[in-house]
Prior knowledge:
Largest sheet: 6 strands, mixed
Number of helices: 7
Shape: elongated
Strand content: 25-35%
CATH superfamily of the largest domain: MoaB/Mog-like domain
CATH architecture of the largest domain: 3-Layer(aba) Sandwich
CATH class of the largest domain: Alpha Beta
Number of domains: 4
Amino acid sequence: MTDDTRRKRPAFDEALRIVAAVTPRAPSERIDLDQALGRVAGADVVAVADYPLADMAAMDGVALAAADSLMASPETPVDLPLRGEARAGAAVPIVSTGAACRISTGAVIPTGYDAVIAREYLTIEGDTLLLTQTVAAGRNIRKRGEDAQRGDIVLPAGRVITPMIVGALACYGVTIIDAARLPAIRIISTGDELSGPNAIHDANGVMIAAMVRALGMNAPDRFSVGDDPASIRTILSHAAATPAAILISTGGVSVGDHDHIPRIVAELGGKVHFHGVTMRPGKPVMFATLPNGALYFGLPGNPVAAALGFRFLVMAAIRAMFGLPPEMGIPVAIDLPPRPDTTVVLKARHTAAGEIEILADQRSHTMRALLTADRWITVDGEGCRSYPLLPVLG
């Protein structure tokens, strides 16, 4: 890498902005509501029906017309005959004013009635309701459409679907939504060290695939290739000619004699947006667009650096695809000196006392600290920010 190329390395935050700006929005697809958990709404969701569907009782008791209670007082009680019963889900009984009707929670209020007295406040003698005070119209009634009316936008595009959102949309009569299409992702682990008599385990491939699945996305295709340029060219040529949204490789992006990825990507017509970011670990990371429109992320081979490349840079692309805003870390007050012109990313965890502990081993090849870590801390000239260890949508 030349000195000129080094000077063009973007800062960490700038690299995230470049990724988001280059990434196209994912198209939408229609899916059943019961398949929508964890997906991102690709369009505004509109209520199909009023909710509640009608004026309904908010509790068990007796329904009546409030006007029939106007003369009631302890001295001059009003007697109303009890006629019929309104039950949730059953046909609404036909009643008249000048009477009252037993009613269950969730039952539709009979025509002409506009109040419900809760069971614990009733005085009943035989089949007669005794009123000793006036009852306000609307008492204990869930009004039709008070939560949502048909045609209301109840969920804007770009929201992640949670279990509570699924329940709410079901109440509003929604059975199908438009969701941002999940990107097809391919992972290529590179390096001669992954095969042969002294082979190491391919931690990067399985780790990044697991991070993809943890987002609720489809298990990605995985490949492995050595450091032979011809083999790398073959597999990247195939990837560049096959529809995919995101291609991720690990290893082969630094400046060693066997780091062939950047040159081959450029030779295949890929547009390199940056190669190298002023961050540690993960400095050699590369981001490009392939001729088929796929986003290419060349992540370093050390596992912590690879994890960080996915956690922040690939995640910036996924958020942009789904129309989600850029992720903002939480500022934290930690006395850590910044490194000039570099964003340092540290393994950390919350202690039982609620404080943030920076873990001891911050080397990019060691994973033991990540067994107890629960967050990343970024340190730069603007201060320190805290991020969840695993990427999340929303």
